[in-house]
Amino acid sequence: MQLNTQTWGEGDRLALLVHGIMADHRTWRRVGPALADRGYRVLAVDLRGHGASGRGEYSPALYADDLVETLPAGAELAVGHSLGGLTLSLAVDRLKPARAVFSDPAWHLASSVEGFGPEMFAQFKSAGKEQVRAMNPRWEEVDVDIELATLALWDEATALGLAPLFGQDLLPAAPVVPSLVQLADPSLLISPERAALLRERGFEVRSVAGAGHTIHRDDFDGFMASLEGWI
């Protein structure tokens, strides 16, 4: 499936941005321009079931195939957040960016946490402004409004498509390209033990102190600082 894309900048270097579940390219409203200011042409997608992209069947494999169909190979940088991180990891061998950043990637969805499951994600479709604000107290008001707008377009069936992944360990065996794993503090998806295992497997791992899961919205400056040496 060809995905809807948003572009920032006209630089000689190419950066790719892949959002997480429930979001779309608007989640990168500060990251895209910041990378453009550093000389990148930035392409951000709307995954299938999100934003202005098409609907259909939903699985990480299909998301990854869509990235490969939509985006050029050989970018200087590719960044994936949460589900976008999982999706990027499944496409990185075909996209072949020079460097990859996996921002709090969904490589382990714990089925043991009470109430945590695909049905819970689907319920966020009807979240109101106060709920979004309460869950994300560090977000700027514009990000709360963007979240509501993206939820309105989001197909909540994408959440149900994640059901087979719950309880699975999806950590890559090794980085395909030089790779940074950027973690929230604490990360609910990558435990300290899994972070240590990723280091053993050849990933660089950095945490952004005090940041929640959507690091680039919780602490934009911390997000950008943690990418130094990678962008």
Key attributes of the depicted protein:
7-stranded mixed β-sheet, 10 helices, single chain, 231 residues, alpha/beta, 35% helix
Describe this structure in words.
This protein has 231 residues and is of the alpha/beta class. The protein has helices spanning 31-37, 60-70, 83-95, 118-123, 129-135, 141-153, 157-160, 192-200, 215-218, 220-226; strands at residues 5-8, 13-18, 40-45, 77-81, 99-103, 179-183, 204-207. It has a 7-stranded mixed β-sheet. Helix 2 packs across helix 3 (83-95). The longest helix is centred in the middle third of the chain and has 13 residues, at 83-95. The protein is globular.
Which runs of at least 5 residues are low in confidence (pLDDT < 50)?
A: none
Largest beta-sheet characterization: 7 strands, mixed
Rg over alpha carbons:
16 Å
- Judging from the principal axes of the Cα atoms, what is the shape? globular
The secondary-structure class comes to alpha/beta
* Percentage of residues in strands: 15-25%
How far is the N terminus from the C terminus? Answer: 29 Å
Order of helices and strands: EEHEHEHEHHHHEHEHH
Topology:
Blueprint: E1 5-8, E2 13-18, H1 31-37, E3 40-45, H2 60-70, E4 77-81, H3 83-95, E5 99-103, H4 118-123, H5 129-135, H6 141-153, H7 157-160, E6 179-183, H8 192-200, E7 204-207, H9 215-218, H10 220-226
Parallel strand pairs: 2-3, 2-4, 4-5, 5-6, 6-7
Antiparallel strand pairs: 1-3
Helix pairs in contact: 2-3
